[in-house]
Amino acid sequence: MADEPSITRWSFQDFKMFYDVKFGRKKESTGKDADANGHANGTAVSNGSGASNGNGRAKNTSDMAVYEQYRNQDRASSLNNNGHSSARIDERPQKPLLPPFESAEMRTLAESLSRDIIRGSPDVKWESIKGLENAKRLLKEAVVMPIKYPKYFTGLLSPWKGILLFGPPGTGKTMLAKAVATECNTTFFNISASSIVSKWRGDSEKLVKVLFELARHHAPSTIFLDEIDAIITQRGEARSEHEASRRLKTELLIQMDGLTKTDDLVFVLAATNLPWELDAALLRRLEKRILVPLPEPEARRSMFEELLPPVPDADKLPYDLMVERTEGYSGSDIRLVCKETAMQPLRRLMACLEEKHEAVPEDELPNVGPIRHEDIEVALKNTRPSAHMHTPRYEKFNNDYGSQILH
Questions:
Q1: Residues 238-241: contacts with CB within 8 Å, 24+ apart?
Q2: Is 23 in a helix, a strand, or coil?
Q3: What secondary structure letter does DSSP report for 159?
Q4: Which of 121, 188, 208, 406 has the lowest CB atom count within 10 Å?
Q5: Tally of CA atoms within 13 A in the half-sphere of 242 that contains its CB
Q6: CB 176 within 8 A of CB 165
Q7: Which PROSITE patterns does the record match to this protein (predicted)?
Q8: Neighbours of 214 (CB within 10 A)
Q9: What kind and span of H or E run contains 208?
């Protein structure tokens, strides 16, 4: 640390540099040539954590948040003693990670959100989602097309900024949101209650405000609010509703209302299993409401063929029977059925190996046998649907508030 300047010759720049070095917000620049090159580029921004995960071990680049990758690039480009950037200057992003904030407190909140939320592409394609053709078509119309062809979506045809995905659990709502972010190549903010709820008074509202400012800065961007019913339910009905919760809901509504008055390509995707518990003001801001229903027979058959592909020289699996017996099953239920089916021949093999009472080398272990028809019967008997009970209620909500395509 540099020597503390005498109180008789302190200037504003001296005080600023001493404060930053003293409290660890910035590292002291290497050498005294930084003063000659200006205080603006004489220090490297750091919060003391580097590219580690808190225990001193460096993380892989693929596992690091975008914030840490950008900061590492900035650190690598400021290693020269004369303050000039190195040859890696071309690798730095054109846009700064954080927009200019009015206070250091807001910047600190933005840094925490960036480290925890901004990630790379979710890598989910439309083709990886079986069925849900209507939901895909509506999402493409609401999000993908305005980004590809902004010329047509102006005035009255301005894109929808709020989209609600509702339906039974396990039907693919989260995968649809990730597919939107992947296909549009947008910055993806995966938000849950833990991301924007703080124990400190007033910080929750500030986190919501900073989140939307970050989304505008990184536009086009997608803010995905998973299980939004845990964040903003109907207001004023429960006497146990806390003041902090009400202020958080109000700030979220204000920020979402502000999106409709700007031309920034920032989309809010919300997902819920309980759409009837959402506040009416939130439903008004979520203009496009899309039902993600249980998979249809064609979609169930595609799932079975992908998860349990036919094996040469083995009995043909009764896909038609499996589709007929899984009426009312969600996508996650069908995956459990396939997993239980594949476990049956493995259980028979394990029983044979345990009877030998001797260790078998790994390279001499026999292969798992083929799937039999009785294995499918056992799996269907042991796996029951988990999301069919409220199907009529979802259909009623869709008829009252949903967005549909007329064929």
A1: none
A2: coil
A3: P
A4: 406
A5: 9
A6: yes
A7: AAA
A8: 24
A9: helix 203-217
Cα separation of 67 and 121, whole Å?
14
Tokens of 299: 């979609």
Inter-axis angle of helices 104-117 and 66-76, nearest 10: 110
Map residue 205 onto helix, strand or coil.
helix
Helix 203-217 with 104-117: angle, nearest 10 deg: 70
Q: How many CA atoms does the CB half-sphere of 80 hold within 13 Å?
A: 11
Q: How many CB atoms lie within 10 A of CB 34?
A: 21
CB 310 within 8 A of CB 317: yes
Q: Positive or negative CA dihedral for 188, 189, 192, 194?
A: positive
What's the pLDDT at 297?
92
**Strands 162-166 vs 288-291: parallel, antiparallel or unpaired:** parallel
Residue 54 structure tokens: 């808190």
Closest CA to 196 of 239, 255, 273: 255
pTM: 0.69
Name all domains of the chain by residue range, CATH numbers in brackets: 7-94 (no CATH), 118-294 (3.40.50.300), 297-386 (1.10.8.60)
Q: How far is CA 20 from CA 25, 189, 283, in A?
A: 5, 30, 45
* DSSP-derived secondary structure letter, 364: G
Q: Mean pLDDT in runs of 10 for the chain (407 residues)?
A: 52 70 54 44 40 43 48 50 42 63 79 69 84 90 87 86 90 89 82 79 84 86 87 67 80 84 84 89 89 92 91 84 92 92 90 80 82 90 84 85 61
